[in-house]
Design a protein that fits this description.
By secondary structure, the protein is α/β, with parallel strands linked by helices. The protein is built from 25 helices and 21 strands. The strands form four sheets. It has an eight-stranded mixed beta sheet.
């Protein structure tokens, strides 16, 4: 960030820090730049916070006219606290000290005599936003990478360094709780609109705008009267409503952090130190430990998409405009790629285009951006886009011969360097690729339904697959903001292979007389986001039946309840009736009966066993990746740290 035309100079020799630069201009303004040594992104480690205290010491000795806090990293402002330091907490006293360190330091920053401003460009998350909130002014740079939020709840913890107090003061209690309890982030324009930021400017004027704003004396716009009521005298009402919303998606025994956030705001104005019993119970809880593990698993998946020298894809060609193919095409267009979508005729493509427009309206607030995304999605009945595309994805019927014929035609059309991928969910790539001049070019890029919600994509390698094509496939998956999981070609790969025996076990319990509601309740109580019977209805009972035939080898006959429903055309959500009746996309459920003791463990055991088998056979490289795949591909209870982590800890 260039602050010219105003030249910067170090305050004095003592201001030479390892992670911060403290400089002052001739007109009396000071700039504190965080550039954490040895790291590509800024995080608030103990060393970084310790140096910030020294920066404030230096400024106390010679107060500036104003202070601008900014980042020296291209990656953004501050990503948050140093997550690795959570794992080093050995006692309740350690956890208390961790919270006290940031709380007291940021209170000190908020109380300085001179005006302060946080210049936020790029990500500003967790402790980074708490630091920014401790400044008098917060200026955001209007560009796509700027995101602000307090996502600590996603790690099973709370914003203990002032965020639970200062965010509600800026935007009001209801909006602040909505952001904190869901771990949401907002872009620059939204931050300005809700009052989180005091100004929103383009990059070219950010430096001068920051200089002008920090000395402006501009008062903050007051919150509306009703918002002040809801944040003050009526905050108990807001807290009660927030708990009801949280309870609908997270049980306190599994995820205590959101309930702690509500209570700390409602009872202690966001001061976690006022409730020391909560700190250790949250910060060092098994949930927090496992969710931090899940964070690291996610980062590992992201790393597979970062191969050096792989150019970004610009054009994707999708063949098959059914639910999967159409939604893959829509998602790619949403993420900025040019997409050609092919099928036999325009009538087959039209529903996919309509679904895409719905997605664009839901995800993109600006009508101009919606229009741009729609323009990037091009119907292509003749399939001409295959010759120009960087990535070609086949998403047609699960039939070996039909796919082979398509690949035979594509082989003559595609560029030699283009990625050829199949979205097959159950077929071996080795059975599809021998019609190609270079069979090793075929890879699997296996999405999950619904495409816009499921973050995992399996990148499937057949025997002898081209490593360069696999690397490009993984990079493409990451480019469209999905998590690539490398797996080997085998029936069901990882996710479907572990789901099939789990769903079969649940449906055999129906055969034994248990109600679908009771079975689902057992797994919801365990911590699954959806019960297995509702999941089977959602996937489609015909698909569940086919998967059972090919992926569950130790049974000869499918569950009777499943076979009878498929034979009668009751296929689940898509037909309006399966195990449940579906209305407006929701399952109409009766009351669950008493859940038999041990039912959840009985249902889980086939999934746990199959996951371990897939690691042992090398379909997925190791237990960590297996846990990551099952969490992000099925929603397996994240607070457990994944199926194999859960199995290890429960058997310990």
């Amino acid at each position: 960030m260039n602050l010219t035309p105003h030249s910067l100079a170090p305050v004095d020799a003592a201001a030479a820090f390892t992670h911060w630069r403290l400089e002052r201009t001739a007109d009396g303004l000071a700039t504190a730049t965080l550039d954490r040594a040895g790291a590509s992104a800024n995080a608030l480690s103990a060393a970084v916070l310790g140096e910030l205290a020294q920066v404030l010491d230096a400024l106390d000795a010679a107060p500036p006219k104003g202070l601008i806090v900014r980042s020296g990293k291209d990656a953004g402002f501050i990503a948050g606290a140093d997550i690795d330091e959570f794992g080093a907490l050995a006692s309740a006293e350690d956890a208390q000290a961790l919270v006290a360190r940031g709380w007291q330091l940021f209170n000190r920053l908020a109380a300085v005599r001179y005006p302060t401003l946080a210049l936020v460009r790029g990500h500003c998350l967790g402790g980074g936003l708490e630091l920014a909130l401790a400044c008098r002014y917060l200026l955001v740079v209007d560009e796509p990478g700027t995101r602000l939020g307090l996502p600590e709840v996603m790690l099973g913890i709370f914003p203990g360094w002032g965020g639970m107090r200062r965010l509600p003061q800026r935007v009001g209690g209801p909006v602040a709780l909505d952001l904190m309890l869901a771990g949401k982030t907002v872009d620059a324009r939204r931050a300005y609109k809700i009052g989180l930021a005091d100004a929103c400017v383009p990059p070219r004027v950010m430096a001068e705008a920051a200089r002008q704003l920090v000395v402006s004396g501009q008062p903050r716009k007051p919150l509306p009267f009703v918002t002040r009521l809801l944040s003050g005298p009526l905050r108990s009402v807001v807290a009660s409503q927030a708990k009801k919303k949280v309870a609908a998606r997270a049980r306190p025994e599994h995820y205590p952090a959101p309930y702690a956030i509500i209570d700390l705001w409602a009872r202690h104005d966001g001061d976690a130190l006022a409730a020391p019993e909560l700190i250790d119970g949250i910060v060092r809880s098994p949930t927090a430990k496992n969710l931090v593990r899940v964070y690291h698993l996610q980062e590992r998946l992201k790393s597979f998409g970062k191969a050096d020298g792989v150019a970004a894809a610009r054009h994707v060609h999708v063949i098959g405009a059914g639910v999967m193919g159409g939604d893959i095409a829509a998602w790619c267009a949403l993420r900025g790629l040019t997409v050609t979508l092919a099928d036999q005729d325009i009538a087959r493509i039209a529903p996919a285009i309509q679904r895409a427009h719905t997605l664009f309206k839901r995800r993109l607030r600006d009508p101009l951006l919606q229009r741009a995304a729609a323009d990037r999605l091009i119907p292509d009945v003749d399939g001409c886009g295959a010759a120009r595309a960087d990535v070609v994805i086949e998403a047609i019927v699960e039939n070996v011969e039909v796919k082979r014929e398509l690949f035979r035609r594509l082989d003559a059309q595609m560029r030699p360097d283009a990625v050829l991928a199949t979205n097959t969910s159950s077929l071996r790539l080795e059975d599809l690729r021998d019609v190609l001049a270079r069979p090793e070019r075929l890879v699997g890029i296996h999405f999950f339904n619904p495409v816009a919600k499921m973050p995992l994509v399996e990148v499937v390698a057949a025997e002898g697959a081209d490593p360069a094509m696999l690397a490009r496939a993984a990079a493409f998956v990451r480019q469209i903001d999905r998590l690539p999981l490398p797996v080997k070609s085998a029936p069901g790969f990882l996710v479907n292979a572990v789901l099939a025996p789990y769903l079969q076990a649940a449906m055999r319990c129906v055969d034994e007389g248990l109600s679908p509601e009771t079975i689902d309740e057992a797994m919801l109580a365990f911590g699954m986001p959806m019960g297995p019977i509702e999941l089977a209805d959602t996937v489609g009972l015909d698909i569940a039946l086919a998967a059972g035939h090919s992926l569950v080898s130790d049974v000869s006959e499918p569950p009777t309840c499943l076979a009878e429903r498929v034979a009668g055309g009751r296929l689940g959500r898509k037909s309006g009736s399966g195990f449940y009746t579906w209305r407006d996309g929701k399952a109409a459920k009766g009351a669950a009966g008493s859940v038999p003791e041990g039912l959840a463990q009985r249902l889980l055991e086939p999934l746990l066993v199959r996951t371990q088998e897939l690691v042992d056979s090398g379909i997925v490289a190791d237990a960590e990746l297996a846990d990551a795949g099952v969490i992000f591909g099925t929603g397996f209870a994240p607070f457990t740290g994944g199926p194999l982590n859960y199995r290890k800890n429960s058997h310990a």
